[in-house]
Amino acid sequence: MSRVAWDSHLSDVAKNLRPSPIRELLKLTKKPGMISFAGGNPDPAIFPVAEFSEATRILSERGREVLQYGPTEGFEPLKQFLSRWMAPRMGRATAPEEMLITSGSQQGMDLLCSVLVNPGDSILVEDPTYPGALHTMRNRGARFVTVPCDAEGMRVDLLPGILDRAAAEGHRVKFVYAIVNFQNPSGATLSAPRRKALLELAKERDLILFEDDPYGHLRYDGVSDPTIFSQDDEGRVVYACSFSKILAPGSRVAWMVGDPELIRRMVMMKQGNDLCTSVVAQALVYEYCNLGHLEGFLPKILKHYSVKRDGMAEAFRKHLPAEAEYHIPAGGFFFWMRLPGVDTKELFLKAVDRGVAFVTGPSFFANGGGEDCLRLCFSFAQPEELEEGAVRLAEAIRDLKS
Amino acid sequence: MSRVAWDSHLSDVAKNLRPSPIRELLKLTKKPGMISFAGGNPDPAIFPVAEFSEATRILSERGREVLQYGPTEGFEPLKQFLSRWMAPRMGRATAPEEMLITSGSQQGMDLLCSVLVNPGDSILVEDPTYPGALHTMRNRGARFVTVPCDAEGMRVDLLPGILDRAAAEGHRVKFVYAIVNFQNPSGATLSAPRRKALLELAKERDLILFEDDPYGHLRYDGVSDPTIFSQDDEGRVVYACSFSKILAPGSRVAWMVGDPELIRRMVMMKQGNDLCTSVVAQALVYEYCNLGHLEGFLPKILKHYSVKRDGMAEAFRKHLPAEAEYHIPAGGFFFWMRLPGVDTKELFLKAVDRGVAFVTGPSFFANGGGEDCLRLCFSFAQPEELEEGAVRLAEAIRDLKS
Lengths: 402, 402
Hints:
The structure is a homodimer.
Chain A: H1 12-15, H2 21-28, E1 35-36, H3 49-54, H4 57-66, H5 76-90, E2 99-102, H6 104-116, E3 122-127, H7 131-139, E4 143-150, E5 153-154, H8 159-168, E6 173-179, H9 192-205, E7 209-212, E8 237-242, E9 254-257, H10 260-274, H11 279-290, H12 293-319, E10 325-326, E11 334-338, H13 344-354, E12 356-357, E13 359-360, E14 373-377, H14 383-401
Parallel strand pairs in A: 1-12, 3-4, 3-6, 6-7, 7-8
Antiparallel strand pairs in A: 2-9, 4-5, 8-9, 10-11, 11-14, 13-14
Helix pairs in contact in A: 4-11, 6-7, 6-10, 12-14, 13-14
């Protein structure tokens, strides 16, 4: 009995697939007693289980509709709710043909790549950025051009030069990918002047902007800057948001808003991808919102996560060596840290020995870099673990230097 | 204010996207009083709404798990259930690493294309076949080689010649797509000797087979032939099945079974596509099965749909002209009909005037053809509509000839 020799059958993309380095690292962190600052998951301890269960009444009330195939564009009542609820952030109530419900923002990203990117085309991404985005983009055959970030997000002032050099090197940049609020992993928020400058540059150079905003609702201090979408009158900004961080990632319900011409093509691609997002999941999420539970839940998670954020900040202040460079994020899930002269891959092994885990920097850099950086997530660990985790991390840093 | 000129931004696939012709036709059928034999939807009148609602108890019982991100491979209890439940059809209890839960079979098809097909590669499809599959395959840049079908399914005897000619014409055939039971649209089932011959040919020529089986459980007469998967000892058959027809398409839960090497790569592609299928939807489907409702529901739908099948057969026998050529399907949702000398696109317009709808033949042919064919679905129309629909169809045929 001979098995299929797959190498001769695979597509080019499949031949180049690599298991996610983060997944490999996370396997090492499954030991008992491990304090995990690694995975960027919400805290299941505050999932609104009772309220979400209450929403299941829509299955008995509208079962024949909810159990049937739904429109590819999304469950209409959910779209209407989102248009109203998001109007303050979007600058207006967006029209139905501007919105597409997706199976998580991850699918939105994949659909956007599928309608814009040919294999070999490039995407301009932040350095560092969300590795899941890089994975999706690589699966669509994309190459990358990177732009550095600082405490105010993407260095928009460097973009003209970067774009010129990229064009000279043969890159065809199809869109700019920016996580605008409490970025994963840097925690930084793109400042209002930079949002304006980025949109101006996009107009000048005929660029498409993908404004990814999964953390926008998780602001613990200060006030939100206007979305880039709300300032765009040319249809060149595509905006994505999700229920993963503000309700439950297991629902896999997110949405994209953009120019109707673009959305229409994403809908046609989605017909081929999965016909429609689970109507059951969409209907439960809709009913949960409709019952007022989303508005009730948001203040709770803001308090819950801001306490954790403060706990991690205080623990780092108390226990980490002075050379650790980081900012305290005003929202989201992440601290981003630089430890000059430290190889965080080596640190990771010491840290896991000590019983604390994080994600090493290079995972977040599309074209390499970040060896002395690490991401520390405060959303998932329990409050009492924050200080102990910082103590262990400090010990691991000392281990490495001794 | 100038809008984005999208044509200069789109990918090659997006530039060539065409709205589904079926969707366009279906819009014409939304008139009041229309009897629809068009869309291939299950009958919402028998959705197990109460039983599915009962399954929502898993949300209260395991909410913290079900609302969190899940493994890309699928919700483990559902995979275990399916391995046991499908063992008689699969020939054995398949291993966890052989199975991937997908967001509908449609996603499984897309993932399979993504790991096997480069743009410009070809897929060997049945003539006629499911238009949704053609749409997914086109979105991945595939071309098509076609093989005719008869009452016993794919003409496997013609395949060697077809493959030789295709190779000579520069086609690189990456897999063979067969809907093995009660095919959409032909209603035909691939006979046992042809299944064997197809697998033999696949071994001889090192072909990959995609055995798509959404209707396999909907057999009204006779006994099932062994799956091709169960006869394969080389890992070259990928098998897909779905809850869409046996429970509820709105769940968007399906599964694929195949060689672990292939499944592993599909999992990595799916990580980029949507991270995982809605855990909420998977958990509800699992609990519904776990409560024994799937086994309870299957006899009900078999009876429900076989009565409709018989009703349509009797109505066609009584009212349609003798030149109408069709077989009575032993399962599934569809009658496939040939009306020699009739252009079914013209017939469609007459039929819609008379108040009955169907899908015209050419939608089902990858490279053209089928002008005198039509698909008539009996699952969705109500029992009392079957005879009246046949009367109207007969009138439309007369209208066309007068």
